[in-house]
Amino acid sequence: MPTPYHSGFVAVVGRPNVGKSTLMNGFLGQKVAIVSDKPQTTRHKQLGILTRDDVQIIFVDTPGMHKPQNALGKYMVDTATRALMDADAVLFIVDVSEPPGPGDKRLAQLIAEKPGTAPVILALNKSDRLKPEDVLPHSDTYRALAPNAPWLLVSATRGDNLDELLNLIVQTLPESPALYPEDEVTQTHLRDLAAEFIREAALNALEQEVPHGIAVEVDEFQERAQGPTYISANIFIEREAHKKIVIGKEGRMLKQIGTAARGEIEKLLEQKVYLELHVKVNPNWRKDEGEVRRLGYSDKR
Questions:
Q1: Which domains, and CATH codes, for the chain?
Q2: CA 141 – CA 214 distance, rounded (Å)
Q3: Could you tell me if 41 and 35 are in contact, meaning their C-beta atoms sit under 8 angstroms apart?
């Protein structure tokens, strides 16, 4: 008899900055989700599709769970909660180098109270940063948050135990034919990925007070038969004072952002890109539900 095929959706959940996107990119072997050291980098639900001869795993990378302070934050938390409820399995990721905080405990309770029987796997990430004296106390405390879940110490950046974690995930998925074409790695449109790579470059280049107020909208995306792909994008910030910071002296910061973003977009498209960036002020857009939706933070995205 042929070996049964398995496929399903795996919600990748955790509080901000625990390494969810890095872990998913590592499983896929390529970058489909942006990463930075700034909390709340991920704003959208992001699919990453891993297809093998025996299984198709649809990872659903979600925004970090946090207490929302504005319309954007509410959208992010709602997005993560829906993904959790709809999943065939839940990959609960924590930063084991630090003890659990209130956010971890709230999320653990949400996972425990979710309807359905989707199994939970606990990934104790950032084990490469774990001090020897903290291995047992931190691990035991996190395991107590999901007492029935299989668990592993892993490092998304170094690759420790990722194969073992992937095997645990495969074992949780139902028998089902593949749900997406085998050559599809994500459902995110190229122009949306380009916008995310621009935002990632800005997050990595700028200071703490600016990135949370940044949104990126691609105005034009033209793939040409000859010559580079042309992309024009607006970087929105909330305060006039931030505009000078994003542009920088003699335009140097904006050039740095554009150079970094163009490099990532060119890897994605596998061709040259001409990238044009504009910086615009959109006061307090994160608090305005209409602007949050207009900038792509909606269920219809």
A1: 6-172 (3.40.50.300), 190-294 (3.30.300.20)
A2: 36
A3: yes
β-bridge partners, 50:
57
Give Cβ neighbours of residue 65 (< 8 Å, ≥ 6 apart): 13, 14, 15, 16, 77, 80, 103, 106, 107, 110
214 CB-near residues (< 8 Å, 6+ apart): 199, 202, 203, 206, 235, 236, 237, 246
Residue 104 phi, psi (nearest 5)? -60, -40
Question: Which residues make Cβ contacts (< 8 Å) with residue 98, sequence separation at least 6?
Answer: 138
Q: Is 31 helix (H, G, I), strand (E, B) or coil?
A: coil
Structure tokens at 230: 């042309």
Specify the amino acid at residue 141.
Answer: T
What is the rounded distance in angstroms from the CA atom of residue 48 to the CA atom of residue 184?
9
Q: How far is CA 6 from the centre of its chain?
A: 24
- The low-confidence residues of the chain, meaning pLDDT below 70, are 1-2, 38-44, 64-69, 208-209, 211, 298-301
Nearest by Cα to 223 from 266, 279, 181, 277: 266
Q: How many CB atoms lie within 10 A of CB 203?
A: 20
Structure tokens, 150:
């299989």
Among 215, 205, 194, 187, smallest CA distance to 273 is for 194
Nearest Cα to Cα of residue 59 among 225, 186, 214: 186
Residue 68 has a pLDDT of: 66
Token pair of 243 as six digits: 């505009």
Instruction: Return the sign of the alpha-carbon dihedral for residues 161, 163, 167, 172.
Output: positive
Cα–Cα distance for residue pair 63/81, rounded to 1 Å: 9
Residues 18-73 have pLDDT tens digits of: 999 899 999 998 888 777 776 666 666 788 999 999 999 999 888 766 666 678 77
Residue recorded with tokens 């700028």:
206
User: What value does the CA radius of gyration of the chain take, rounded to a whole number of Å?
Assistant: 20
DSSP for residue 105 = H
